[in-house]
Amino acid sequence: ADEFVLEDVEVSVSDHVQKVLKPNWSASWEEIGAENELEDTYTLPIPTLEECVKKIISYMGMQPCERSDKVPDGKASHALYLAGVYRGGHDVLVRAKMALGGTSSDPGAQAITMQLTIRSTDESAVQVIASAVE
Predict the structure, then answer these.
(1) Which residues contact 64 (CB under 8 A, 6 or more apart)?
(2) CA–CA gap between residue 84 and residue 68 (Å, rounded)
(3) Is 7 part of any domain?
(4) Which positions of the chain have pLDDT values less than 70?
(5) Which of 22, 38, 46, 48 could form a cystine bridge with 52, CB 3.0-4.6 A?
(6) Is residue 2, in this structure, part of any structural domain at all?
(7) Phi and psi at residue 39, in whole multiples of 5°?
(8) Domain count along the chain
(9) pTM: predicted TM-score of the whole model, two decimal places
């Protein structure tokens, strides 16, 4: 009997999502509708909106739309719009509204409060995408 050493492999949510550019993200958002929608609020121990945007894009593995990956200078809040296709061909859209000034466990650290809303054509896809943040 042969024995083989396997390396640890980490599979994340982003490995199950294909980036898709939606030229009119808002129209796609309305088209999918709120039937399979999940909304939650998080406090993230991240110091800047720019860093938060980069991390969310990385964790979700989705395409930023409507130039929402660019945070204007001096802003205390921002909305990020993402689009992708989850396994099985299910469209997934994410709206992340972020604001500086959330309270973190470290009083000197800056935190971001984020309201995350996910819509998809498939209910299980919404749950999986939401798990990327938790």
Answers:
(1) 53, 57, 80, 81, 82
(2) 15
(3) no
(4) 102-109, 134
(5) 46
(6) no
(7) -130, 135
(8) 1
(9) 0.86
